[in-house]
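[step 3/7] inverse_fold.run input=structure_tokens len=267
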């Protein structure tokens, strides 16, 4: 891909994100407070507005079956690299299978990605056995894109930018608590949609904050998003059909861009 002109693109993205940040933290109607904390109280009432991004919850029967299979896989042990995430991680099984078999299968990697997952779903899975009995050298984590945007009614917001940030922070904190000897490779959420897509702006702002979780030791943050983009910031369909999930070529780009950092962390 062409080298992206970072100053202009990121200025546009961050300005859009800042505007979206202000919108997503607008005062609650009839109240004098901004709801942005995990358990914020609406002014003048006894109502507690919980951050759903940090509240562990399961999904449906099919999802629970996959979780049960992951728990069984964890009990078998022998996992040196653990991938955790949503559909973008999940699709290593199909779109990225050839790359996976080349890069990760020989290194005892496991894919615990589930389509549709948000931070709250990953938290529930970790709290219910998926990390029991394993000691991976590295956990590759990317989560949060499904916390952005709106529900299927196209009206109800999923989570605000601050709520999603807290959700990612909670996942990293839980991983560190449950796998204290494992290093975490925290990936920036991949760019999505068109340049004017509100979710593109949300993702950009979330990434600027979760980057601070990098402690230079046990948690490393890596942003490979620009590898997918054209010089003007456009996300090409030739790499991400539908402007969300990589195709086979996109997974190759991912693996190539991540390999130097992953290889270093495996030592």
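[step 3/7] decode complete -> sequence:
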């Amino acid at each position: 891909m062409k080298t992206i002109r970072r100053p202009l693109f990121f200025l546009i993205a961050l300005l859009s994100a800042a505007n979206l940040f202000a919108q997503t933290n607008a005062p609650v109607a009839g109240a004098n407070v901004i709801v942005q904390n995990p358990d914020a109280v609406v002014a003048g009432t006894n109502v507690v507005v919980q951050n759903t991004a940090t509240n562990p919850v399961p999904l449906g029967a099919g999802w629970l079956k996959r979780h049960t299979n992951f728990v069984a896989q964890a009990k078998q042990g022998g996992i040196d690299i653990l991938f955790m995430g949503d559909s973008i991680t999940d699709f290593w099984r199909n779109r990225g299978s050839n790359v996976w078999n080349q890069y990760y299968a020989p290194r005892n990697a496991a894919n615990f990605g589930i389509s549709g997952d948000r931070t709250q779903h990953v938290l529930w899975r970790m709290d219910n056995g998926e990390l029991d009995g394993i000691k991976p050298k590295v956990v590759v984590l990317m989560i949060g894109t499904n916390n952005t945007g709106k529900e299927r009614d196209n009206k109800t917001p999923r989570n605000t930018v601050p709520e999603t940030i807290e959700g990612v922070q909670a996942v990293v904190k839980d991983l560190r608590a449950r796998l204290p000897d494992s290093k975490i490779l925290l990936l920036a959420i991949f760019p999505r949609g068109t340049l004017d897509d509100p979710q593109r702006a949300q993702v950009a702002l979330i990434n600027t904050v979760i980057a601070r979780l990098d402690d230079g030791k046990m948690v490393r943050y890596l942003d490979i998003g620009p590898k997918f983009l054209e010089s003007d910031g456009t996300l090409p369909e030739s790499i991400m059909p539908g402007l969300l999930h990589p195709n086979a070529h996109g997974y190759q780009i991912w693996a190539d861009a991540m390999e130097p950092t992953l290889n270093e962390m495996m030592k």
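[step 4/7] annotate
Strands lie at 39-41, 48-50, 81-85, 109-113, 138-142, 183-187, 219-222.
The radius of gyration is 18 Å.
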